[in-house]
Amino acid sequence: MKAKSSILYSWLVRTITYFLPNIPLFMRLRGFLYSFMMNGCGKDFQVASSVVLNPLSGLTVGNNVYIAHNTVVIGLAVEINDEVLIGPNCTISSGNHVFSNKSYRFGKSTIEPVKIMSGSWVAGNCTIVGGGVLPARSILAAGSVLNKRFEQDNSLYAGAPAMFKKNLINTL
Question: Nearest CA to 69 among 86, 82, 83?
Fold first, then answer.
């Protein structure tokens, strides 16, 4: 029941605040309003106007998180840690479907947690699916698909599916 009510609440917040400009004051207001139905939410959560968060009850967000326009976060197990930047047009989903009765349409859905660790940047047009873990202080390059757990912090991951490309500490 909590998931259903958080979907309705999310729609209400998005509808009421949609035409407010994407400036920090109003993006913080959106984040503040969304936080009431979330698992957990830190301070300075900024959300652009065209972001879709469903259901809020499955989302945990840390401090100083920014989610850019046209991003969709769907799932019952999504954790975004402190100081994370999510670029425009991203999709994050902790749910998946199992093939059943000659179709995915009627297959049972499965949930695998998604984690974006502290200090990371998810560039534009990325997709993160269930089981995906982006390590701390790492970058997921534009257009990448993260579908598994990575362990090495301070790294660049890119591609579809995403793969380790290089350590960012050695390039500074």
Answer: 86
Q: Which helix (H) or strand (E) holds 59?
A: strand 59-61
State what percent of residues in the chain have pLDDT above 90: 83
pTM comes to 0.92
pLDDT for 20-36, tens place per residue?
999 999 999 999 999 99
Q: What is the DSSP string of 67-108?
A: E-TT-EEE-SSEEE-TT-EE-TT-EEE-EEE--BTTBSTTSP
**Is residue 137 within 8 Å of residue 161, measured between CB atoms?**
no
pLDDT at 56 over 60: yes
Domains of the chain with CATH codes: 2-151 (2.160.10.10)
